[in-house]
Design a protein that fits this description.
Helices cover 55% and strands 13% of the residues. The protein has 15 helices and 12 strands. Strands 1-2-3-7-6 form a 5-stranded antiparallel sheet. The chain has a 3-stranded antiparallel sheet with strand order 8-11-12, with helices on one face. It is elongated.
Amino acid sequence: MRNKIRKLILEIIGNTPEEKKFFGEKFVKSLQDNVFLDVLPIVGNFSEYMLRLDYITNSLGLDLIGEGHFRHVFRTGNPDILLKVATDRAHPVGNRLVTAIDANEQEIKRFNRYPKFFPKSYAYSKDGIWLLVEKVYKVYKNSDEFREGLLKYFKPVGEIDKNIKDAIIAYSYQVYQNVLPHVSEEESASFDFSKFINDIEFTIMENIAGPGGGSGPAFYVNDKKDIFFDILRLGTEDGEEYSTAVMQSIEGHIAWAFNEIKIHWIGKNLRNLKPDNPEYLYFKFANTVLDKGMKPLIVDYVANKFYEDKDTRDFFIMMQREKITIFDIREENTGETKEGQFKIIDATTF
């Protein structure tokens, strides 16, 4: 077994200067000796476990940096490459026992199917005992980092408020152009579309009325994350198609934002201002421009941003097909590469 593993590693990694530099010279050099990587028997034989652990850390020169339920993780000579070695831990799932080797094999298969969202598997043993895997450059350490990274990468989610604003402005301008020839000079002079644009942006992004009577942005960071998780949940738990999940999740939020602008911003000012106030005519014209019939158009505009975004759609499909739960998408289990690619660090699910 030991010679077989050593031969397999050498076949994959080799002994060239480039490979020594990439995987770490001490690690590659040690592979020329009678190297073995076997299951770490924490449960079965603790003395043997300590001997094997000592062998990996001292003879191979790898630092132990993490101990999960199933596997131990070691830092190689390359700071961007980690070694994951199976332990003998297992737990029952249904009528079978799931092992650490199952976890390794699942991680390898998931990378092969969805390399965009899982750390790269550089080399691995056919028996699933170990694998050399890409280290995620930045692990999200807390909920703030996690939400920021999530919304940065999945742009339709992070920019849902901007897309609502853009849609309102675009469709309002069409109405504005259509009604302008049919209003009096006084009415047209009272309405500055540039001011309307700024007011819509300020209201949505900073000063929309909240359910508690206060004001703030239409969507806080956590609101956006919750919308995305609703979409994912509809796919993973209810089996909905992507387009259906998107529409069901965003429609109510967009309707709420639209009504807050139409009723609680424009309508409130019309109720509070007297007709002889110059601002009254501005809000009267704004009420005409922001036609309630455009609401479904705004929903479609925002939904299309989701449909057109390949990263968001592919992530939804991956979650659904791999049966990954929302629980796995959290801080400390997600991060990003140096290039900003969102990654699930450990998505072994059974």
